[in-house]
From TrEMBL:
Its EC number is 1.14.11.42. This is tRNA wybutosine-synthesizing protein 5. The gene is TYW5. Its cofactor is Fe(2+). It catalyses: 7-[(3S)-3-amino-3-carboxypropyl]wyosine(37) in tRNA(Phe) + 2-oxoglutarate + O2 = 7-(2-hydroxy-3-amino-3-carboxypropyl)wyosine(37) in tRNA(Phe) + succinate + CO2. Pfam families: Cupin_8 (PF13621). Keywords: Dioxygenase, Iron, Metal-binding, Oxidoreductase, tRNA processing. Pathway: tRNA modification; wybutosine-tRNA(Phe) biosynthesis. tRNA hydroxylase that acts as a component of the wybutosine biosynthesis pathway. Wybutosine is a hyper modified guanosine with a tricyclic base found at the 3'-position adjacent to the anticodon of eukaryotic phenylalanine tRNA. Catalyzes the hydroxylation of 7-(a-amino-a-carboxypropyl)wyosine (yW-72) into undermodified hydroxywybutosine (OHyW*). OHyW* being further transformed into hydroxywybutosine (OHyW) by LCMT2/TYW4. OHyW is a derivative of wybutosine found in higher eukaryotes. Belongs to the TYW5 family. GO terms for biological process: wybutosine biosynthetic process. InterPro entries: Cupin_8 (IPR041667), JmjC_dom (IPR003347).
Length: 318
């Protein structure tokens, strides 16, 4: 049987990139890059399990708990549970658990949220002020562009689903090691989307019978060590596996003018308002085509695709 594999591209790494160089040489390219040698503050050495437990104490946190390493947001193969932060951190650092919800080798994942998830964004300075003092966030954007700072903790072996965000962000790996696989926005036809997420859960051993086009997606890959910062441009799909227990911080900022974003979006993953309106209009157009016989529906749908390509595709992008 013919073996099919995706083309693989290594995400480039750059050392000691200043704000000026990032904005001049890196940011305009709109491609992921690993930034090394950044000044992040004492967090990279201080944030041990013991220190985290003491610094954040017994504050209750809502976490994802999964009996399997590959978490799937579409099928919801995990449960939400609440634990005191210090208990959660120690459990997340374990391989086998004496106390557990689902199984002795269950995986844990914390994605910090605002105090009122419907109104407030995640901000480490508000949710974990003691820990925030240890972090020096690379402010390679204007202060008014800042959207959120998301504190994350993952068990070793945990793999998150492939998805995209609508804002630019820095993934700051504070402790532990991660593998990150990314796909260009241009490869969206091959990723079998459901909303902002790909249906292809196992990207390392994909079912090409079920997802035959997935092989055409070009795979960008990197490994993040403690102290590394990955720039993920908006709309770049990413799949993250924690090879070790680790702590990370995502910093999101608004690449577009503020009025382009959905004001009710506290996660940074709702499509821009103009895109949402366009998709709604398209859905209504497709519903209208259902009034025609199949032969006519096919013909006019193809014409619509050609018109979209002619009017909206950008040839020099990506």
């Amino acid at each position: 049987m013919e073996r099919r594999e995706q083309a693989v591209v290594r995400v480039p790494s750059l050392d000691g990139v200043t704000r000026e160089r990032f904005l001049r040489d890196v940011y305009p390219r709109r491609e992921p890059v690993v930034l090394k040698g950044m000044e992040l503050g004492p967090c990279t050495t201080k944030w041990t399990v013991d220190y985290l437990s003491e610094a954040a104490g017994s504050k209750e946190v809502k976490i994802h708990v999964s009996a399997v390493p590959q978490m799937d947001f579409l099928s919801k193969n995990f449960v939400y549970r609440t634990l005191p932060f210090d208990v959660f951190v120690r459990r997340a650092a374990e391989v086998k658990h004496e106390d557990y919800f689902l199984s002795e080798d269950e995986k844990y994942y914390l994605r910090s949220v605002g105090e009122d998830v419907r109104k407030d964004v995640a901000d480490i300075r508000k949710q974990f002020p003691g820990l925030a003092e240890d972090v020096q966030i690379p402010e390679y954007f204007e202060k008014e562009q800042f959207f959120s700072s998301v504190f994350r903790i993952s068990s070793a072996g945990l793999q998150l689903w492939t998805h995209y965000d609508v804002m630019d962000n820095f993934l700051i790996q504070v402790t532990g090691r991660k593998r990150v696989v990314l796909y260009s926005p241009r490869d969206v036809p091959y990723l079998y989307l459901s909303g902002t997420k790909s249906e292809v859960l196992d990207i390392d051993n994909p079912d090409f019978e079920k997802y035959p086009l997935f092989v055409k997606a070009k795979r960008y890959q990197c490994y993040l060590e403690a102290g590394d910062v990955l720039f993920i441009p908006a709309m770049w799909f990413h799949n993250v596996i924690s090879e070790e227990f680790g702590v990370a911080l995502n910093v999101f900022w608004k690449h577009l003018p503020a009025e382009c974003y959905d004001k009710s979006d506290t996660y940074g993953n709702k499509d821009p308002t103009a895109a949402s309106r366009a998709i709604q209009i398209l859905d209504r157009a497709l519903k209208t085509l259902e009034e025609l016989p199949a032969e006519y529906r096919d013909f006019y749908a193809r014409r619509m695709v050609l018109r979209i390509q002619e009017k909206a595709y950008t040839n020099d992008y990506g």
